[in-house]
Structure formats: structure tokens, C-alpha cells
Amino acid sequence: MTHQPQQLPADHPPVNSGNIAVLLVNLGTPDAPDTKSVKRYLAEFLSDRRVVEIPPIAWQPILRGIILNTRPKKSAHAYSQVWTEDGSPLAAITRAQAEKLQPMLGAPETGGVKVDWAMRYGNPSIQSRIEALMADGCERILLAPLYPQYSGATTATVVDKAAETLGKMRWQASLRTLPPYHDDPAYIGALASDLGAQLDALDFTPEVLLLSFHGMPQRTLELGDPYHCHCRKTARLLEDRLARPDLRILITFQSRFGPAKWLEPATDTTIGLEADAGTKRMAVATPGFSADCLETLEEIAIQGREQFLDAGGEHFATLACLNDRPEGMAMLETIVRRELSGWI
Ligand SMILES: C=CC1=C(C)c2cc3[nH]c(cc4nc(cc5[nH]c(cc1n2)c(C)c5CCC(=O)O)C(CCC(=O)O)=C4C)c(C)c3C=C
Ligand SMILES: [Fe+2]
Ligand SMILES: [Fe+2]
Asked: What is its EC number (predicted)?
């Protein structure tokens, strides 16, 4: 799919809506970094049939009998290492993105679009925010799953949840959904300039840059999920735009879960192989995550670093996600305005 730049000009007046809302949605996170909260969150997340595609009759006993009795304690420890005074980084950054996007789209009181945020699992839930927006008079909602690369386990399940909420209503709001933006020039451009600036600010020159995307079971690719292809296309376009011929750029997949075969090459395996082959200076970017979270701040920045340095590496840097920094916000404004232009 090609994208024509169609965004409204930067000096466009606040969109005259009154009744339009944008709901930013990301994956979700526990309410607190303790075993009980993580257990509640993982029970909801891992019971989603879009996420674990094993029939419930076979999966639920494994989930309830084994996983929810072991993983929450380990994961709670990992969360406690990245928790901030504003709570989970993923929720805090998604909230900041919504708060910064609001004035960019105009104040709702003066006819601008209302911006809100939700989490697919945990709080604030999609249902609670859709209900609140509608109670506030919003009749049209642009649902924006903040996943650049589409997958059934992320983008589709956000849309399912919103549809489930509307499914209980007699008088529904109208819904649009933000398409995946893995190859959008606004996204690739924002990443290239932001990552380029982060690379230039390092106190060492990396030999290799890993573009580490969240993994998925290999079977989802075979069943037709475009996620793997979207990640590869992002990586190819980003490599072109970064234009750093002296930097070796590799695509990898992180966060393997369970015994099934996942997309390869795995990030941790690649870190080990690179160190064994004598690479001393490595940087890792995570372009598939719109916000820093457990998977970037703990798995890469803590575990990945330790693995690389223990195996003989000398310099390791984790580059930040776009988060709520100016490049990321300008990108979000562009892709959201383009969708809103169908309504205004
Ligand atoms: C960015 C896209 C993501 C895809 C694709 C994805 C697939 C996927 N994830 C799991 C299992 C877990 N993921 C966990 C955390 C997590 N996953 C994503 C994003 C994607 N997941 C994010 C942003 C986060 C971080 C959440 C946070 O609170 O910071 C976890 C929980 C943590 C843990 O216990 O390790 C699990 C479990 C599967 C099975 C899957 C694909 C089918
Ligand atoms: Fe995940
Ligand atoms: Fe992880």
C-alpha cells in the first residue's frame, strides 16, 4: 500500500468537530508491579484468543495451572525494575502522548477533537473510555491502535474490543480505525531522524544496529498474518533513510513466549552470536514499540546489555522509542489528521 501525503496543512484551524474523539490505544500493563496485579493482567492478556491461538479447553488448564502460578512473580520483579513515579512506563507514556496530541488537534471546548487513551488489557479499559467519550457527547471515534505493524494479536484485538463494547449499545458511536503505518513516510521519517540523532549523541560508534521487533509465533506468518512482512518493510525503509553505509543493520525478533517456534532471528540469540564473533560496540533500536515499556526497558536495556557485556562486548546502547518526544508527536499528528480528514 502506498501513502499519499494528505495531511491538513500545519496552519489548518482546529478541526471543527465538537463531537469527534481520538482514542489512542496501546497493549496494556498491570496496575502495580506486584505479583497479584501482574497475575490479573496476564490472566486477561493471555486468555485473549487472538494472542494465544490454542483452543481454550487445552490452553486454560496450562494458563491457570502453570503459567499464572509461576510467571507473575518473575514478571513483577521485572516490572519493579522499570516502574516510575508515574506508574508503568507504557501507561505513563501513552497518557503523555494523548495529553500532548490534544492541543495539537485543538481544544474540544472550541470545536477541536477530544483526545483520550486506553489500554487493551488492564486500565483504563477500552470499554470505560468509549463509554466516557460517548457520555461526553462524542458521536464519532477514531480508534488508533498504536502499533505501526499490523498483527491479529495487537491491532485486530483492539478493534474486536471496541466492537464488543459498541455491540452492547442500541445507539452506537461511529467508528473509524487507524490503519497500520509501518511504511508511512511520516513514521519512517520520524524514526530515521530521531534514531539518527540518538546514534550521533552516543559516546561510541556502534559497529552494528539491531532493529528489534516484538516476536510472534512463526505459525501466524504461515496463517497469513502480515506482521512479519510489515516489520521487514519498516526495517528496509528505515535502513534506506538512515543511509549509514558503515553501520551494519540487522532485523531481529524479541520476547519469545512459550515453547512454539517464533519468528527468527531472535534478538537474544543474535546478541550472543555477535559478541562471540567479536563485535564490541552494539546499539539496539525497537521501532515497533510506540512507547518504551517492559520489553524495551528491561528485556533490552537491562537483560540485553548484561548478556552482551558478559559475552565480551564493550559498549551497548538501547535507543529510546519515539514516545512523546517532538518527532513522535508530529508523526502521530500527521497520521491521525489524515484519518480525521475523512470526517471534517
Ligand atoms: C509491539 C507489538 C507486540 C506484539 C506483536 C506482541 C505479541 C505477543 N506478546 C505476547 C506475550 C507477552 N507480551 C508481553 C508484554 C508486551 N508485549 C508488547 C507488545 C507486543 N506483543 C508490549 C508493548 C508489552 C509490554 C507491556 C508493558 O506492561 O510494558 C507480556 C507481559 C510481560 C511478561 O510477562 O513477559 C507477555 C506475556 C504474546 C504471546 C504475543 C503474540 C502472540
Ligand atoms: Fe507482547
Ligand atoms: Fe519480555
From this structure: 4.98.1.1
* CB contact set of 56 (below 8 Å; sequence gap of 6+): 47, 49
Distance CA 125, CA 130 (A): 9
> Which ligand is the nearest neighbour of the Cα of 302?
3
Whole-angstrom Cα distance, residue 280 to residue 115?
Answer: 44
Q: Say whether 313 sits in a helix, a strand or coil.
A: coil
pLDDT tens string 128-172: 999 999 999 999 999 999 999 999 999 999 999 999 999 999 999
Residues whose CB is under 5 A from ligand 3 (ion)? 255, 295, 299
Here the ipTM equals 0.96
Cα of 254 from ligand 1 centre, angstroms = 10
Sign of CA dihedral 195, 257, 146, 149: positive
What the chain holds in terms of domains, given with CATH numbers, is: 20-181+325-340 (3.40.50.1400), 185-318 (3.40.50.1400)
Question: Which ligand sits closest to the CA of 294?
Answer: 1
pTM for the model stands at 0.94
Q: List ligand 1's pocket residues with C-beta within 6 A.
A: 27, 29, 51-52, 71, 75, 88, 90, 147, 151, 153-154, 214, 216-217, 255, 257, 288-289, 293-295
